[in-house]
Amino acid sequence: MAKPTDPGIFVQTDSVGAETERLAAIMACLRDPETGCPWDIEQDFATIAPYTIEEAHEVADAIARQAWGELSGELGDLALQVVFHAQMAAEAGHFSLLDVLRGINAKMIARHPHVFGDESRVKSAAQQTEDWEKIKSAERAAKAETGVLDGVALGLPALTRALKLQKRAARVGFDWPSTAEVVAKIVEEANELVEARDKLGAEEIAEEYGDLMFVMVNLGRHLGLDAEACLRAANGKFTRRFAFIEAELAKAGKRPADSDLAEMDALWDAAKRKGL
After folding, report:
1. Which fold has domain 147-225?
2. Domain named NTP pyrophosphohydrolase MazG-like: which ranges (predicted)?
């Protein structure tokens, strides 16, 4: 195991492989029980997992903002998460970073026989997607994942997981034939939510609200939309318009807390007219 005194840790190189090894060595030093960082030493898979998710979202955020100057750093932060988990796994005797890299390399080659094998590259995107799913189905079968929904990660954002679950079910015919049935289901779920609000308790209200969100994701899927991406865009629009409200109020020496709904609604409409 490399030590903080190892000069190789401090020397940048021009090799992707060498820099990968350097990052792994740095992580090993941070986790060293005698000379490492107390915070890094205390961590485990469960405590680091939220950071992994956060870093992935920060990568997506940089891309959404087209902040290309930030993207390199965000990808580095995400790469550190991979190395952190691999180091903890190696310490526990589960697997190493080498196993991680070998595994993903083998998977990518196996999943692209039209590039690395003898299959024809003359395929439509739809055909390639179908072939990809067949390969993944075979991989799931090899891991004894026999259920249609097996393998859809629990840790995914809820909207993303809902979409993946629905896509899996749709492949075996469990799906509405058109958006009309989905919209009708939305109306039904909305009515059930109102009834729960008026007559039932908090647990039932939460359940009906979840059902409504789930079917909204389904409508997006039928329309060819990604609910996560759509909601992210809506969040961005809300942020821009509310910032406009704050800026306009500031011109009058006011804050939102000093205003009222009617005034802020009018400013919201003004932001809409400006295309924000």
Report:
1. Helix Hairpins (1.10.287)
2. 43-116
